[in-house]
Fold these 2 entries.
Entry 1:
Amino acid sequence: MSDAQRMTQALTLFRGYRSFGLTGEVRDAVDTQIGLHVDRQGNCAGTYRRLGGTTEFVIIGDRAWEKHDATALSGVLDFA
């Protein structure tokens, strides 16, 4: 079973809850870690860590905000 299939199955199981939190790691070469909290309306808040940098994010409806620490911002600028 792929990671995407596991995520789909988990989200289906959590359908009965008003909200839930999730913490995990992505199996990649840069040790990506994600922690988030989601409600039934699709609003979400969490933290994304990658390459030693941290990005905090909030998604409410169709709007999203990100806050990068210096390391994460440098990585985004290098990528761009």
Entry 2:
Amino acid sequence: MAYAFVFGCFLLLGLAGALAARTGYRGKVCDRSDGYDVPAQVKADPELRKRANDLVAFWCTGAAVLGFAPLVPIGTVLMSGGGRSVGTRGLVVLALYGLAVVIVGAYPFEKIKSLGRSAER
């Protein structure tokens, strides 16, 4: 049961990253209806808007790939029918890995906030 939960968590991380990357590739990061909350300076400047879309597309694609990567080994453990298991150290490593995926996915949004602050100067 725990492995199914871990599998689902990484699946959701991968899907969230893929959806965010899709928004960046479509150039809709700054759109009010489809995008995200970005500073007004970024919305107003076409150069900053392009930079925001590129940041989200690149970093969230990386987060999606990193989120989907552990699905294979976790799926192997799930499909073994109890023949394989992951020890406590392995689960700690998976938790830290999941934290790293979240940090990679959150980076472009923090960077966009700093783009807005740098445009004010």
